[in-house]
Structure formats: structure tokens, C-alpha cells
Design goal:
Blueprint (H helix, E strand, L loop, with lengths): L9 E8 L5 H8 L4 E8 L9 H17 L4 E4 L2 H5 L3 H15 L3 E3 H11 L4 E6 L3 H13 L3 E7 L5 H4 L4 H10 L7 E4 L10 H8 L3 E3 H12 L23
Parallel strand pairs: 1-2, 1-3, 3-4, 5-6, 5-7, 7-8
């Protein structure tokens, strides 16, 4: 008797903060059934928070463990962490992960900017989960990348426990309250929030593309793995086949 091996189209490895509770269920829910997500956790938020260069040894250790699972793409899936050191520091981290694994790597930050590039967006409405201090750090990264932020708001939530329990309608209302006809796209930041279920409804309401951290990383990791599937629930971004250069 011969047996047919079960070989997925791709394996995607995610490095997530110890405090994150939504990357795993969201990726398992939205990824195509023949694409397998793998996860490892490291301390990079709350009491483990540190400058990006100091986190690099932990990130590379996690990357090497995912490499043993033969992941096609490795993803550093924390928006605030990947944006925290600025553009050059984030590029260095991606390069170091690729060197350690011998495979493509992305971060939440590079996924967002690639998604915005694919959508031709440079004028943004920006919503983040954090209080103003964390919001300003992300604003600096976005402005360093050359985006024109036409409206923005820090949601001011208290921390991880509140981020991951606020319902999708909260994020819908935050974005709609900042409606701007001169915006090219809306960016809702954070890998630990329930924003994915309202992407399509928001795009219909606002008439603009909506990009979120987990949606963008799911899209870019698939495209890096050579998979151009459309996931209708995740909006206009998934109709973009190519991996666009950063803005």
C-alpha cells in the first residue's frame, strides 16, 4: 500500500508577545485550511518591554525554533514592538531573522507598510489601542515612513486585558468617528484586538480600504509564501496579489 503524504501549501511562523491572546485564534480562523500557522511566544510587552535592539536575542532564539518547524515565512507579530525603534531598526531585525532562518521574514510594521503600498495609500486615518504615549511612538514610525496622517486617535485603553476584550463594534465606531474624505486608507493598529470582523463593513461604510495589523501580516506572509488566495472577509487588501514595495 502506498500513502500520500500530507504536505501543507505553507507553514507560517509567528513570534508573538506573551500577553497576546488573539493572533493564534485569528490566524487559525482566517488562514486557508491548507496553510499551517505555528506560534512561539517571547516577553516583549508589559514587564518584559525593552528597546528593540535589546529584544533581538530573544527574537532570534524564537526564530530559530520556528525554523526547525520548516516555516516558509517568519513573522514578528507585534505592531508596537516592531515600530518602536524606527524604520532602520525594524529593517535590521527582519534582516537578522532572515539570516538566522534562511527564509523570508516580516514584521507587523513591514506588513502594514507593504499593505498600504499595495493599496496606493499615503494619506491615512490612524487609530491605535494605546494611551497617548504609545500612540505617539507609532505616529513617529508612520511619519518616518512618509505617511501623511490626516486624522488620528489613541483609544486610550488600559492594557492587554482591555485591548483583547473590546468588541469589534468599538473599533468600527472609532474609525467611523474619524471619517475623512481626503484619506486614502484607514489603519487600525494592534495585533491583540478584535478588528478583523469589521474590516469589510468598515470599507463599505467609509468607501476606503481598511488595514489592520493581523490582516496585513496574514496577507503579506501568504504573498511571501507564493499564495495569492483571496479572503473576502478581510477586505480590499486581499485582492492585491503582488508584494508592494514600502511607501
Amino acid at each position: 500500500m502506498t500513502y500520500e503524504a500530507i504536505i501543507p501549501r505553507a507553514r507560517i511562523g509567528f513570534i508573538i508577545p506573551t500577553s497576546n491572546r488573539l493572533v493564534e485564534p485569528q490566524m487559525q480562523h482566517y488562514l486557508p485550511s491548507d496553510v499551517v500557522p505555528h506560534f512561539t511566544r517571547i516577553g516583549m510587552t508589559n514587564s518584559h518591554k525593552a528597546p528593540l535592539d535589546q529584544l533581538l536575542p530573544r527574537i532570534l532564539h524564537a526564530s530559530s525554533m520556528l525554523a526547525e518547524a520548516k516555516c516558509n515565512v517568519t513573522v514578528l507579530q507585534c505592531t508596537g514592538t516592531s515600530m518602536s525603534g524606527g524604520v532602520d531598526a525594524e529593517k535590521k531585525v527582519i534582516a537578522e531573522i532572515e539570516h538566522a532562518t534562511g527564509r523570508p521574514a516580516i514584521s507587523a510594521a513591514s506588513a502594514v507598510t507593504s499593505a498600504l503600498g499595495a493599496l496606493g495609500a499615503s494619506r491615512l486615518v490612524f487609530v491605535s489601542e494605546t494611551k497617548q504615549h504609545g500612540h505617539e511612538a507609532k505616529l513617529r514610525y508612520l511619519r518616518e515612513m512618509g505617511y501623511d496622517i490626516v486624522a488620528d486617535k489613541a483609544a486610550g485603553l488600559s492594557g492587554s486585558d482591555e485591548w483583547c476584550t473590546m468588541p469589534p463594534r468599538f473599533w468600527f465606531d472609532q474609525a467611523v468617528a474619524l471619517r475623512r474624505n481626503d484619506a486614502d486608507a484607514y489603519f487600525i493598529s494592534c495585533a491583540n484586538i478584535h478588528s478583523l470582523p469589521v474590516i469589510r463593513e468598515l470599507e463599505q461604510e467609509l468607501g476606503r480600504p481598511v488595514v489592520t495589523s493581523n490582516q496585513a501580516s496574514l496577507w503579506l506572509s501568504l504573498r511571501k509564501a507564493g499564495i495569492n488566495d483571496v479572503i473576502p472577509a478581510l477586505g480590499r487588501l486581499f485582492h492585491q496579489d503582488g508584494v508592494a514595495a514600502r511607501v
